[in-house]
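If you are new to this repository, start here. Below is one unmodified record pulled from the training split, so you can see the exact layout before writing a loader.
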Amino acid sequence: MSDQPEGPRQLPLVLAEPRGRKKPPRHLADLTPGERKDLLVEMGLPGFRAKQVATHYFSRLVDDPEQMTDLPAAQRGELVEALLPHLMTPLRVLEADKGTTRKTLWKLFDGALVESVLMRYPNRTTMCVSSQAGCGMACPFCATGQGGLQRNMSTAEIVEQVLAGARSLERGEVPGGEGRVNNVVFMGMGEPLANYKAVVGAVRRLTEPAPDGYGMSARGITVSTVGLVPRIKQLADEGIPVTLALSLHAPDDELRNELVPINTRFSVAETVDAAFEYFQKTKRRVSIEYAMMRGINDQAWRADLLGDVLNERGHGWVHVNLIPLNEVPGSQYTRSFDKDTDEFVRRLEAKGVSTTIRDTRGDEIDAACGQLAATE
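And here is the target side for that same chain:
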């Protein structure tokens, strides 16, 4: 690592999107219930129809206007066009684990590509969603980070990934019978807290009671971040008890500066302090994400240091999630040996830190977000 010609890139807190880019179509999920009603009134349509359209979208999971028979035929097209514009088109769907893991490559209205993954377990279904097309955080081991940031996604584009998964369950397209999306993880393409407003908007739409929203529990939502400290603090004050997942990947500044360039703005100490403050305010245990890279960050002494860094703030406030690295073709970063990962677990548990190794579902379909889009 030390022979790299340049030092780590210093990144701005919010990366600007290219100018002149068209915005995604305004959609029901971008608006509060009151804003939906106002929009229809402005168009000369009855405001109460907004709740009917929301019921179709969030509760009945209907996307075919012909099935919205409680809307008057004369106004149906106008209502659907106003509140349910087409947002994204599936380009490819790949399946693994006997169809219970489904990865979808989506084409957005402007040609940008994003990915989402549905993972069905015996007792729950999780959707992993993207929040940006591309990513500006430039982590060198990440497929998405290599392509740079194209643009932020809208609230509705984020929500639609979840609702598309919900519809596939409703229609019996996923083995296991009808079901419901119980968990949403913002661990797809992009840095969620760099698209803060849209991500928080999506969380609110997903947790608002039906029919105004999807009606899921905020405790079933995990928001991941590489460590945008001011945004972590802002999220703690939103009053939504989502789980915070901090992608740490190294316990020391020297290595983390290289693996997670935003660390040059916010050090390990500042970042972990912000995560601990999140725990104190929300009483929600924080998840520490740590991608295991062979010979890079998987040494036993780093496990000891990670345990010490976390325990300095207290005990029982975090859970460490070790992630077997999804390898990017041609990258110098490779997955740790199982024996080294097992020793890492042993060292952390010896320090009283709750630790698990993430399930590697969907390996054969490049289920690490960004890999499929990169091949396209």
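Two things worth knowing about this chain: The longest strand covers residues 88-96. Residues 1-9 have pLDDT under 50 and may be disordered.
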